[in-house]
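Here is this case:
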Amino acid sequence: MAVYSEIVQISSTHVYNLFHNQNSDSALYHNYNHTLEVVSHTKEIATGMNLSLEELEIVLIAAMFHDTGYLQTREDHEELSASIAEQFLSKQHYSQENIKKVIGCIRATKVPQQPVTLLEKVICDADLLNLGKEDCIEKGEVLHKEIEHAIGKSIPEKDWLKQSINFFHEHSYHTDYVRKRYNKSRDENLKKLEEQLHSLE
């Protein structure tokens, strides 16, 4: 079992407390479980891309904080998440250089994703790795319900499927590891969505 640095462990505890002290029942998708999934995905991709320990530390911290802003706002939550991370890490006397990298990673998760650095590409792929996972369709329905609750009105299934299919078409993975490991299953999930839409038309 890997032993992570003190700042990673402290960040993990802080993010856990943020979610469990402020979490809303309406956050059906963007909740602590999603954060844990993205952290797990980050570890997988970091291993696949042979990141150094310092690179792993930075991207893990970013993964932990990337949706903390969602606890307060849905719109532009990435910017608030970056601010929350910056304030916390500064108090921990984390290096300014690494804080900038963490902030860059968090901001890069904003859709449409436009990552520049390797670490930004890693967290972007970690955040949307579910598109290539077996439970992609089920997770999508959870997000569907969360958005309906947030906007206060229902989104017809046909409209949701069209939005989801468009999202898939506009998305592409950024790291070699994820492209090789998940592109095929991602395309299979897209095909399932297209078949569902076809059955409703």
